[in-house]
Amino acid sequence: MSDEVNVSTLEDFLKRYPEMASLDPMNRIDFSLSDINPDELSVLKVYFCEICTDFTLYMQIFSEASGIEQLNKFNSFVFSYLERAYLEKICLKIATLMDPAAINKNENLSLQRFIKQTKSTVLQSKFDSLNNFYISSGIKDWRNKVLAHADLQAISGTSALQVIFDRADVDNFVSEIQDFIDLINDPRVSTDHRVVLPRDKDGYAFIEKLREHNES
Q: What is the pTM assigned to this prediction?
């Protein structure tokens, strides 16, 4: 028996079976990756990684019933405020990615900045889908009227502010932004938006330590 291993890449496969070209992830895009400014993409990836880390911790600590039970046992008042503040921080950072490529002379690190670089209809369609949720969920109004500005009518309750989203919606929103970033980075790679944290320092470890304290 031969010890040699035959290695075939997707490129080799498609050369042999050109009728299967639809399997090539690169066919998902209608632009060249060289159109993307690498320095700006690098900054975007670091910025978004911070969002994903925040969101991963948020979900680990605040999304499971057993964890919430331990938080409430320890101090329901404090942790309810911390949850709201954490979610507001995440939504505010996500919202900045939905901004125009530039406002007046100020350039923004936004998804539209990369659409402008590529003039891609694929990226524009992806952004339009994200933007529809951003508006319909109420996150856009919430960001503009409450988080970023103290809109008097919104804060006083004299104007209705409809915020219609839950953790699962935000989870999907973050996942779809990750897919957008994968498209402009390398369509052959699919990145998990949930960050793998050190097991002894993640949100689950925190909840376990809290449980031990509550039971002591």
A: 0.81
